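just leaving the lab so this will be short. what follows is a protein written twice so to speak, once as letters and once as structure tokens for the fold. can you read through it and tell me how you think this chain folds. thanks a lot i owe you, the record is right below.

___
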Amino acid sequence: MRESLREKVIQVCEKKIAQKGEAVGVSFYAFFANKNDDPELLMEAATWWIQTHKLDHFEKAKKIPALVGEREQP
């Protein structure tokens, strides 16, 4: 996962938790605007979310930053 996406994921999760509490869920769509202006980045996030980590559509926001912090091995 590229660093800019990693930072965005952490930022969005922290903001959602601050606004709605630790039980709030997120999907990978939360990291993007409603307009699909970067399909390559969206697919990178979807691949990381679905194929790499096999996450459900919605996951607890507090779980995601720890996963994002893990560096995939080449």
About this structure: The radius of gyration is 12 Å. The first helix runs from residue 3 to 20.
